[in-house]
Design brief:
Elements (H helix, E strand, L loop, with lengths): L6 H27 L7 H20 L6 H22 L5 H28 L1 H6 L8 H24 L5
Length: 165
């Protein structure tokens, strides 16, 4: 039980928070790729829900240290840097690029976990890449495609993102 909430319900809430972070992050990335002339609300929602994802993830598990915990620490570091770049340094100078790289990397980590969880929880995917964590060429190829997509999108976002706020 967490704060009187059964663990299964808490994990469900964590999952919903993470899905909001991913969807808002994809919208944010789309805006960055189109130049970033849109408002900043999507960036704020992405950052807020990504921070909540990290916090609730640590509430679910901290010990033993697992790859998920290490990924949570990396996500937290990226979010701290992204928040500093955006709110302390106002995306001025190199901080614009630092923000884009850290925000896109944080979104990638959320999507990486989404792929892992999908292969663990969706029966059809689990059948082609069994195991916890999933393994095999299909799983590896899927994660490789996701990584390449984010590297390309991040590179383009650094070049195109010019916020007007």
């Amino acid at each position: 039980m967490f704060f009187g909430i059964p663990i299964a319900s808490f994990v469900f809430i964590h999952t919903l928070i993470t899905l909001v972070a991913i969807v808002s992050g994809l919208v944010m990335l789309s805006g960055m790729l189109s130049g970033g002339r849109r408002g900043s609300a999507t960036h704020t929602v992405f950052l807020l829900f990504s921070v909540l994802t990290a916090i609730t993830g640590f509430m679910i598990q901290v010990k033993p240290v697992t790859p998920a915990v290490i990924l949570g620490v990396l996500l937290s570091v990226l979010l701290i840097i992204a928040l500093a770049a955006r709110y302390l340094f106002g995306l001025r100078g190199a901080w614009r690029s630092i923000y884009v790289v850290t925000a896109v990397a944080a979104l990638y980590f959320n999507c990486f976990v989404l792929v892992v969880q999908s292969f663990q929880k969706v029966p059809a995917l689990h059948a082609i890449a069994p195991g916890v964590p999933p393994a095999g060429p299909v799983f590896g190829a899927t994660q490789g495609v996701v990584l390449i997509a984010f590297v390309v999108a991040g590179f383009l976002a650094v070049r195109r993102f010019r916020p007007s706020y």
